Structure formats: C-alpha cells, structure tokens
C-alpha cells in the first residue's frame, strides 16, 4: 500500500467542476496555479449513478483527464458519503443498499485505479448528536452494514486501488469550540480503534470550511490534534478550505483582509504542527463557490471566500495562502 511519503512536496489543490474546465479563465487558473484537482461533485455516487443500473462517468472522466493532461494530481471525492447516496435507493432494503454500495465502490475505484493521488473513502462519518458511543452518524451505510462499514470501505478501496492514499474526510474538527474538541476526541478514538484492527486508513482530511468573522486560526488544541494524528502514522490533508465572508462588514477591502488573515492564521499555525500532504481550496475562484448559495451575504453582495476573485485575479487571500505554504506567488510546487 503506497502512501504519499512525508518528504513529498505539499500539493496545492482546488475543487473543480466541468463548468470550470469549459471556462477558459478558470481552466487556466487551475492549470497554472494548482498542483491538484478534486471533482467538487461530479465523481459522487448520486452523480455517476443517476438511475438504477445506469452509470455516467463522463464528467468525472473529464476532470481526471484534465488533471493528467496538465500534470495535475487528482483526488477522488467521495466513495461513501451520506450526502450523495442516489435518490433511487431511498426506501431500498439493507441488502440492496449493501449490494449497490459495494458495486459502486468497486466500479468507480476500479475505473480510476492507479490514476488518483488519494480517495476520500468515507466522508463525514461522525455526528456526536446521534448519541452513539462511537460517535458515528446515522447514515444509510451504518444502517445497511453496521459500524463495520468504515473498515469494509477502506479494505475494499485498498484492494481495488492500492496506489491511492486512502483518506477519512471530516468536517468540523478544526474549530475552537467544545463541540469540535469532543469531535476530535471521537475521531482519535475511531482512528486508533480502526488502525489497531489493521484497517488501511492512511490519511485524515480536515475539510476546513472556515468563517472569517470567527477570526479562525490553527489554535493550540488543533495543533495538538494534528500532531496526534501524525503520530498515528497518518497523513493530514486540508481538503475543502474556504473562508466565508458572509458575516463580515460590507466593505470589500475589509472583507478581503479578514479572509486573508484567516487563510494565514489557519494554515501557518497548522503547518507549525504538521506536514499536510495537500491543501485544497474548495473552488477555483469566487466565480463558482457553494457558499454563494449555502452561506450568502445578507446584503446580497457576492461572497469572496477563495484566493482568486470572480475575474480570476489574485486576492490578498492568495498572497496569504502562498506565504503560509512558503511559495512564491507565481509558481506551482516544482514549477518555476
Ligand atoms: O451544475 C448543475 C446544474 O447544471 C443543474 O441544473 C443543477 C440541478 O440539478 O445541479 C447543478 O449541480 C449541482 C452542483 O452542486 C453545482 O451547483 C449538484 O446538483 C449539487 O449536488 C452540487 O452540490 C455539491 C454538494 O457538495 C453535494 O454534492 C456542491 O457543489 C459541493 O460544493 C458540496 O461539497 C461538499 C463536500 O462534497 C463535502 N463537504 C461539504 C461540502 C459542502 O457542502
């Protein structure tokens, strides 16, 4: 099982969709400034299996092909996620869900075997509000397979694509709050339990959806958590970084400063504690971000959560990101 050696360069990545590949400016940004791409949604189960017995990987193939054509690494996202189970499985019995979930994993992981940097094998498994002692979220996978579904997913992924770094991806571990601290403790227990059983979890993804108004940073508890995860022999990845400015003042320069400060304080602090395999921003530019619909500004002003603005210009956040990662503002890793 090959995992990214800790000496490998830290890869800067961006989430993208085929919309971005068809947009000349954003396709250029992706190829010019990033080392890695991850399909934002077009490789997910609900997208590649739109109807029973139907499979459609045209968009996912386009993103993997783009990565290969431009010397970019590519992440797979995500094999099993409760947020992307096809609607046509709703109401199906446990045996049907088990059969379909395993067939999906074998098909999509097999399709890109040997071509991906890493896979988010399971996305967002924890929800402490569900009240289980293991912290697992209620999900079709837990219901169909029981708590062993994570081990099954990682073992099947390792068998199908032994060259990919196999990542458990989670949200809400990074915040400076009692809930996040409890979630970090549950995550460490989960990782220790699975690694002790020989489950091939090789990386932990910190989604890192931040809010500039909270003045986020890599606080000491997060730094300690990062050190504990690496001490388990796992790689850390920042997998979905963006900084909402929805609760910031309207003034654009002030907002951009707050967002840039968040990028700097979070990444510089995290890199004091660990060596992430990759830092991925959740979008190529402000022109297309999930936050525009999920976390809009009350005043209706376009949100500005990413390092490039809607016109593809570098923002203060780009300089902060480059500085935190120790990069010149122009070059990709290893590209002069
Ligand atoms: O682009 C199509 C459009 O052509 C079509 O008309 C429309 C209606 O079907 O769908 C549009 O695609 C949508 C896409 O967002 C772009 O807006 C997909 O249906 C929709 O499923 C997709 O949502 C994605 C969401 O995950 C669910 O997959 C978001 O882009 C994506 O940012 C979000 O990302 C998640 C991570 O995977 C996991 N962590 C949280 C993160 C944010 O929710």
Task: Report on the architecture of this protein.
39% of the residues lie in helices and 15% in strands. The protein is built from twelve helices and nine strands. The radius of gyration is 19 Å and the shape is globular. The model is unreliable at 1-5 (pLDDT under 50). Ligand G3I is lined by residues 40-41, 44, 83-84, 123, 171, 207, 240, 290.
Question: What are its keywords?
Answer:
disordered N terminus; binds ligand G3I; alpha/beta; globular; 39% helix; 336 residues
Helix/sheet category: alpha/beta
Number of contiguous helices:
12
End-to-end separation: 31 Å
Q: Could you tell me the strand content as a percent range?
A: 15-25%
Order of helical and strand elements = EHHEHHEHEHHEHEEHEHEHH
Strand line-up in the sheet with most strands: 1-2-3-4-5-6-8-9
Mean pLDDT: 95
- Shape annotation: globular
Rg, rounded, reads 19 Å
Q: Give a short account of the largest sheet.
A: 8 strands, parallel, barrel
Describe the oligomeric state of these chains in a short phrase: single chain
Number of strands: 9
Low-confidence stretches: 1-5
